[in-house]
Amino acid sequence: MARGESFIAKLSIVAVSLVLALAAVEASAMDMLLNNPPIHFERNLKSMVALANQHQAGLLLVTFATSTEFNLPPVASEEYIFDLKQHNDITRTGAERSETPLFDLAAVLPDDRSLFTDGRHMTVEGNRTRAQLIGDFIIAEFLS
Fold it and tell me: What is the pTM of this model?
């Protein structure tokens, strides 16, 4: 075997070994979520708040609402529900720590199938309802 062929053969063995090693490490989606907390989301939220404060821009944080009326992947999955709760909790905590106004849409939006197309994307009526709820909050908290 020529020197170049020997190198290629060794490289191929290493590549196959790596693929086999990676295949042997099976992790569920929940394991991945538990081992990789949403630190980037939290960091980005802090940065957004800091930039708004630096530029004296008004900021209203809003939690993300979904519907449990759909038994569709991914919104019905344990992992999606867990991840969404993590993100909403970070938003709530971040708002409290930074004294940034928060509208908890997840807590007040009705769990009504007609407001969503698939459990996470809103219909026209869902967007109207969301806009009305947020608008009412802004009027009550900042304009009254």
Answer: 0.79
